[in-house]
Amino acid sequence: MRMINEHLALTGWYKSSYSGGDQGECLEVAPGHPHVPVRDSKATHIPALVFSRSGWAAFVSAVKDGHING
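Below the sequence we write its predicted structure tokens.
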């Protein structure tokens, strides 16, 4: 994982339809890039975290399988 400051240059940010709208507890991702940038939807001015595709896939899989609790 690394952080990038070029977050404004990235396009295609979206958040899950399960996020509950504008409650402010959402992550946004910008797919279609060599890596997977992730940012806080209520703090889009700070740098995004960037994960490898395999690292992001492993994280999402672990969440779906219940191995990571919020």
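The mean pLDDT is 79.
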